[in-house]
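Figure 3 (text version): structure tokens given as input.
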């Protein structure tokens, strides 16, 4: 894929007009956009249709985590909305994942809608080892927990995972090249890390095997979002030869 198709811009806004204006500015440069809880809760599901009319791809980042039937129902709605990608928390367990996948496949068959990519969230990029173990109570190391959840997701039939760039090498070695890895926590060298704790640059993330990079504030809060996106794509191209 062209690097412009591998960059996902996070539309972390509270108003539709701000999100849609950014898409208008960037859509000839970037084709994929993430709708997270902030924008979805502010504008409702109608924002998905408004974005689809602009001809862009949508990653619905709501990180579903509930009992299996509830998550499966939410996934069915996501399929019917026509999103290209969405995710769920792998800590919800294998039954939740398998029930959701079964509902997704059934809905695709019934509606003839394209099947979206379904990803599992491993460990949030805002968490570090101390927080994972001392506050959440996970006794595995952070990398062990990421790999454990990713392998469970793969065995259950997911298309890929959302994981920190710092676990990319581990996941690629263990899960191979065909399993998708979507990477948040990407920060160009010229951007502030904000609350992200496990970060790397766009070039490093591509080198280590990321399929898609999710970038928000380095673009959305930049005085020139278009120039920022161009710089990130240039950096991604620098990492085109994987380590």
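Below: residues designed for each position.
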């Amino acid at each position: 894929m062209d690097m412009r198709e591998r960059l996902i811009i996070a539309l972390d806004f509270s108003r539709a007009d701000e999100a849609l204006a950014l898409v208008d500015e960037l859509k000839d440069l970037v084709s994929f956009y993430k709708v997270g809880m902030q924008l979805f809760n502010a504008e409702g599901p109608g924002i998905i249709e408004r974005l689809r009319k602009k001809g862009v791809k949508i990653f619905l980042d709501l990180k579903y985590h509930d009992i299996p039937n509830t998550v499966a129902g939410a996934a069915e709605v996501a399929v019917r909305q026509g999103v290209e990608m969405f995710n769920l928390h792998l800590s919800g367990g294998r039954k939740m994942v398998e029930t959701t996948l079964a509902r997704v496949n059934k809905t695709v068959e019934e509606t003839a809608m394209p099947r979206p990519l379904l990803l599992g969230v491993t460990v949030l990029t805002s968490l570090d080892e101390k927080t994972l173990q001392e506050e959440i109570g996970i006794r595995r190391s952070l990398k062990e927990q990421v790999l454990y959840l990713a392998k469970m997701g793969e065995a259950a039939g997911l298309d890929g995972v959302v994981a920190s760039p710092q676990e990319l090498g581990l996941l690629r070695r263990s899960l191979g090249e065909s399993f998708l890895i979507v990477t948040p926590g990407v920060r160009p060298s010229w951007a502030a890390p904000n609350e992200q704790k496990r970060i790397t640059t766009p070039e490093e993330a591509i080198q280590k095997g990321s399929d898609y990079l999710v970038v928000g504030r380095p673009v959305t809060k930049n005085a020139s979002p278009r120039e920022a996106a161009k710089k990130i794509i240039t950096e991604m191209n620098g990492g085109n030869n994987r380590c």
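The first strand starts at residue 7 and ends at 10.
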